[in-house]
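Handout, section 4.2: multi-component inputs.
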Amino acid sequence: MSAALDVTGLQVEVRRGHDRMLAVTDVAFAVEPGEALGIVGESGSGKSLSLRAVAGVLPPGVTRSANSLITGADGGRMAMVFQEPLAALNPTRRIGEAIADVVQAARRCSRGEARAAAIDLLTEVGMSDPVRRAKMWPHELSGGLRQRAVIAMALAHEPSVLLCDEPTTALDVTVQDQILGLLDRLRRERNVALVFVTHDLAVVATLCQRLAVMYAGQIIETGNTSEVLRAPRHPYTMALLEASRTRTSAEGARPIGGNPPDPAAFPAGCRFAPRCPFAREKCRQAPYSLRTDSAGRPNACIRSDELIEVAA
Amino acid sequence: MSLLAPTATTERLTVDDLSVRFTVGHTGSLFRRTPVVLKAVDNVSIALEPGSSLGIVGESGSGKSTLARAIAGLADPTEGTIRLGTTTLRSRRNRVLSRRVQMVFQDPASSLNPRRTIRSMLRELLLVHHMEKQSTVDARIEELVGMVELPTSVLDRRPRGLSGGQRQRLGIARALALKPELLVLDEPLAALDVSVQASVLILLRKLQAELGFSMIFISHDLGAVRGICTEVAVMYLGRIVEHGPVRDVLADPEHPYTRALIAAEPSLDNPRVPGSSGLVGEVPSPVNPPSGCTFRTRCPLAQPACASAPPALLAYATGRADHRVACFVANDEI
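Output:
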C-alpha cells in the first residue's frame, strides 16, 4: 500500500528582518490511507508551520526549502481544516453556496448539481437540517457547526489527506468530542488519511493511531500512539506527558524548566539539552536527529537506551 | 511586618440569588419595542469559605465568565447580593473594597499596559492604592516579581517582550499586589502551553497556601479544576446544575450534564472512541432557553415533567449536604 502522503526533508525558512532562519528542519512523516497521525508540540515547535508548508499555505516571509519532498497517492489531494473556522469561511457567502463553489472548482458540474452536492456534504458531516442551514451565513452558526461546514468544504475537494490544524482547540469539550467523532468516521468511511496538529496529547490519544512529537523544529519522537504514551523514550516526551498528567493531580511535580529555544538560537547539539535533566556533555556536541534505538523506537535522544536501563 | 505577610483576614464570600441580564436588542415595531433579554446568570447562590478554591466549569454561554465578572465588580448584577463577610459588594466599589477582590484574565497581555514597563506599571498600582510609600515601593515590586518566580530583569521590559507564561505570572503578581482576599481567575491557563500550565498551577497552589486568599477559578478544563480546586460548580445556561467537593462531583457526578462533560473530556490514559460522549447538539440560545430544566433538550434522562419547572439545587439523593444537584431524575422527584 502506498502512503497517502509522504513528506521527507521538510525545511521551512523564516525571514525576520535581514536574518533567515530554519524554523523547521528535516521533518519527515508519512500517513497511510485511513490512518490518523497526530503531530504534537508546544507553541513555537514548528508543528503548524510544518502542516502549512505541506499544504502550501505559508504566511508571507516564510518559505519551504526547495529540497523538501512531498508526494502522495492520487496526486496527493489535500484539504486543510483550520483552528478558526470563521476565518476559513467567506462572510459574504451563504455556506451552501460557498461549498457549491468548491464543488464546481473541483469537478465539472452544473450549479444545481453543485448545490445538491453541498447539501449531501453537509448531511455527511452531521449537520442536522442541512437544507435550511445551507442558506445560513457563517456568522449565524455556532463554532461547532462552522467547523462542520469547513470540514464539508474540505471534503468537496475529495481529498485523500485531510490536514487539520488544531481544529478543536477553540471548541467546548462536548463539541470537540463531536468533531473528533466526525473526523474519525470520515477516516474510516472515506479511507481518508488525517494529519492532526495539536498541543493536546489527550486528543491524540483519542483520535490518532500514530504520533509524532515536535520540539524546536524537529520531530524528536514518533511511533504508535499507545506505545509512545505508555513508555516514552525521549526526555521531552516524558516531560510533556508529566506536565499533562500533573495538571490534573493535586500533588505538584516538577515542570519543565526554561523555555523552548528561538529558531534564531537553536542549540548546536541536542536542542532539548539545555532543559534536559539527563543531558551529558556528549549531548551538547553534535546535532542529533531521529534514529531507531535498540528497542526499535524512533527518537532523537542518544541516551534513550541508557535512560531506560536507569529507570528499570 | 514582613512584606510577604498574608492578607490580614480572608472573609467568607456569599452570593445570594444573583442574576445578571443583558438587553441584547429589540423586537417588535418602531413604536412597540420589546427588549430582548439575555439571562447570562440566573439566580445563582454560592458560599465560599475563607481560603478555599471554587472551580466554575461549563461550556461557552454557560454564564461562568459573567458570574466571575459580577463577583469582581466588572458586571452589574440585575438582582441579588454579593457579600464578603458582612460587607456588601456592589459593582461600583471604592478603592478599599475593590482591593479585596482582584481578577486575573485569560489574556494577560490585554490586562497589562503595552506602553509601560512592568516596573512603572506595578509602581503606579502600588502608589495609587497607597499600598506602599515611595521609600518602600521598589522593594515591594521586586518582592512581588520574586513571589511569582520571575527574575527581576523582567521589570524593565514591556509586556510584549515577555512570554505568555511570564505575562500570566505578572497578571497574578498585579492582582496579588493589592493583597486581595479573593482572587477571581477567568480561564487563566487557556492561552498557555501544557508545560507552562502545569507550572502556573503549581505556583497558584503555593501562593494560596502561603497567603491564604480564596480563589474562584473559571475554566472549561476539568483537568485544571481537579488540579487546583477544593470544590466545583457546574453551570449550564446561567444556572448552577451541580455543586460540591471536587472529589465527589468529578469522581461521582449526579447531574447528566456533569456526566456528559466528564465523558467528553479526552483522556490520556484511557482514551475512548471519539464521539462517544453521547451529548448531541449544542447549548441552546440563552435568549430563549427551554422551559423548566434548561438541559432537558440535550438530556438522555429527560422526562415530560422536566419541562414544567426549573429543578432546585438540592442535596436529597446524594445523601451529602455539601453535594447538591439540580435534576428531578437524580433527586428522585419524578
